[in-house]
Amino acid sequence: MAKQWREIYNEWEKAVAPGLQQFAASDGFRDFMAASAKVTSALTAEFERASRRWLHFWNLPAATDVRKLRQQVAAVDRELKGLKNLVFEVAAVAPAGDEPATNGSAQPARKKTTAKKPAAKRPAAAVEVS
Amino acid sequence: MSATTTIKPKSASGTSGESPERDAELPNLFGPYAEMWETGMRRWWNLTRHVMGIDRAPVGQTPRDAVWSNGKAVLYRYRSESPTVRPPLLLVMSLVSRSFILDLQPGNSFIERLVAEGFDVFLLDWGVPDEEEANNTLETYCDELLPQAVAKVNQMGGDNGVTVFGYCYGGLLSLLYAAGHPEDPIRNLVVMATPVDFTKMPTVMTGVGEGGIDPAHLMDHTGNVPAEAVRASFTLLTPTSDLSTVMDFWEHLDDDKFLSSYQAMTSWTRNHIPFPGATMVQTVEMFNEGNGFVTGDLMLGGRKLDLADITAPFLNVIAERDHIVPPESTYGLDEMVGSDDATEMKLPAGHVGLIVGNGARKRSIPSMIGWMLEHSDVEG
Fold first, then answer.
1. Total domain count for chain B?
2. Which of B170, B183, B271, B275 yields a CA-CA distance of 20 to 30 A from B139?
3. Which residues in B lie closer than 8 A to residue A73 (C-beta atoms)?
4. Could you tell me the pLDDT band of residue B345, with boundaries at 50, 70 and 90?
5. Cα–Cα distance list, A31 to A111, B230, B238 (Å)
6. Which residues lie closer than 8 Å to B115 by C-beta, 6 or more apart?
7. Is the same domain home to B331 and B263?
8. How much is the pLDDT for B250?
9. Is B316 helix (H, G, I), strand (E, B) or coil?
10. Residue B247 C-beta-side C-alpha neighbours within 13 Å
11. Is residue B29 included in any domain, yes or no?
12. Interface test with A, best of B132, B141, B254 (most A CBs within 10 A)
């Protein structure tokens, strides 16, 4: 009995699945998806614009403001990551104690410390995950 | 079961039923009902704990340590008492799916098997992108993160080089990285279920780009393609698969082992991760529209790449029943790379079946391990 419903489903699936797959892979479906993505995107933007105007009228922050802030933080993070990578590259290339002193003072020792500093930020120590 | 015991004397035509032989016979009369009761109760309990999220099947259980990270990318090293295979193995995961598929469950884990075979296994997990990663490009992965991770693995593995192993989109990243950094210590390169000829990929996967869906319309407020959209694209490849999965679940609900595997697999198939927006746009341009691997029009960081610059021993693993990356879209890589030792390995499995399940345990994994052992130094 338990198998009977499954057999019925399997038969149904065998009959329907190829057609559905073909439809999902068709150009018509792709065009429909493209159009629906475009409409959804436009409607979302329009709704956000309207709600933002309303919230700003009451001097309240909108989701788009928070989003903008998050994007700015992300940009700062990216920049920081870029600088960190740059420091590592310089540290990897520069032989220790062989740095040209730019201001005339004895710089090599100091340079070495700067290059090592970010390394401490990395989770070099093993962190147990499981 | 106690209910069955009390009914026993009655069922034995009024006799006392004290004899052990008689007792042993009696339950047979109610056997089917007892079984039905037990099955029903187990189904009810399994359904309850599944719905309530009680005692869910754990995934990714092989012990590991995070040894390096950059942003959200984390490099893990799997604990092994004494790795006997050199060089170390670096697994590079796809950008859109969770890496625990490589270490699904004890006894059904690719990584567990590799560790048991003596490999020193590392896994590069890209993490879940948000606004910070929205601007990540292929250069971020192939020119920054992968070289750094490979250098770290090489250093931790005693400067013996690294076997780089890319799965699906991770294979694509590994190819771009290897072609762009021929000077890096790549001892072997293995790519598995990796798309090469994008004209032979399913329309659902390549329908983004010129004449199709505008990538910008797919992105959410974080600037990434949301995980739901990624999942939907996979679901559209086999539209009835979700329903079939539910049917399987209902059919085998009384089977604890099945439920455990079901939970582990669905926690992977239903939990994709967002695709970084800038990488998506670049992938659409370079591969969906430009079919870069086939036309040779590959650019990374302003320089032209040539797969012929990959000279390390090379293995391309193809899944014969792959519906995500069909086999016809993966052929020919062995001729595109510049390696003298390039192999194409076709295995009777699906996209995930290469590393998960009985077929993987018996055929796919041993075949891949065999090739890697042949191309490594094995101690003892």
1. 2
2. B271
3. 131-132
4. very high
5. 58, 18, 19
6. B62, B78, B79, B80, B121
7. yes
8. 93
9. strand
10. 17
11. yes
12. B132
Give the minimum alpha-carbon distance from A6 to chain B in angstroms, rounded to a whole number: 7
Q: For chain B, how are helix, strand and coil distributed in percent, rounded to 5? A: 45, 15, 35
Q: Where are the alpha helices (DSSP H) in chain A?
A: 2-24, 27-57, 63-93, 108-121
Residue B373 token pair: 């052992």
- A17, A78, A85 member nearest B240 (Cβ): A17
B207 plus B339 within the same structural domain:
yes
ipTM of the complex: 0.74
What residues form DSSP beta bridges with B108?
A: B105
Kindly state the tokens that stand for A23.
């439809």
Are B133 and B179 contained in the same domain? yes
Residue B57 located in a structural domain: no
CATH for B331: 3.40.50.1820
- What is the per-residue pLDDT across A87-102, written as a single tens digit (0 to 9) for each? 878 887 876 555 444 4
B224 CB neighbour count, 10 Å cutoff: 26
B206 in contact with chain A, both atoms CB, cutoff 8 A: no
B32 and chain A: CB distance < 8 Å anywhere? no
User: Quick count: other Cβ atoms within 10 Å of Cβ A17?
Assistant: 16
In angstroms, rounded to a whole number, what is the distance separating the alpha carbons of residues A68 and A45? 14
Question: Which structural domain range is residue B33 located in?
Answer: 2-52
Render pLDDT for B253-278 as a digit per residue (tens, 0 to 9). 999 999 999 999 999 999 999 999 99
